[in-house]
Amino acid sequence: MEQGEAASSPAAEEKAAGEEEDDFGYRLFPDRNKKPQSFLVRSLFTFHNRCQLMLRMTLDTNPYAQLLLEAMKQSGCTVFNDRHFSCENCDGCVSGGFDSATSQIVLCQNNIRHQSHMNRVVTHELIHAFDHCRAHVDWFKNVKHLACSEIRAANLSGDCTLMNEIARFKFGLKGHHQTCVRDRAIRSILAVRKVSKETAEKAVDEVFDACFNDLEPFGRIPHSKTDAKRAYRDFQNRDRYNANL
Predict the structure, then answer these.
(1) The pTM of the whole model exceeds 0.85
(2) Where are the residues of the annotated region Disordered (predicted)?
């Protein structure tokens, strides 16, 4: 999940007796439970049109998204715009989410206002979708699985680039990228799970090293669009090499 920027994995299950029921973040995405509006009705809303246009721009031009889309296709999980993305109104604290129950990425049309923000949200949620495709992720019962995907999303999506951190008035030198990834992963878990901060921190810390160093499908931490373009080119060349073996 990315807050103010993106949330991950909404769904519903019962909690054990005596525990508060967890809605798995669905409260942040109220449109998930509404009857879909007709295209004509949706087209009258500027938010929806803007969201669709920015999404198309991201999918067509952003190297982070293009690499992830190609990697998912090669993993047998082809992503279709009309099927796997949904522009909806959300709670004010989030900008997107991955609904594993429907394999659909939710884009918060009322909270995403700039193309750079859309690029980051789509990338963040596509990393969750990629993890969902390639691994048996237990989003709802295993907080470590969720923590791992949140670490990877924060690490690889550009969430923690220097410019983004400066825009948040957060500064640091040695180890700042890791600190940002850890903090954002914890915040994302707390936004969509009714667990204590201590539980979220413990889950993140226990899987941090392994998941921070899992750089698939990028092969590197893309700190900029230039890095992402290189990663995309390397991914394409790697696939061409494997095809000739």
Answers:
(1) no
(2) 1-23
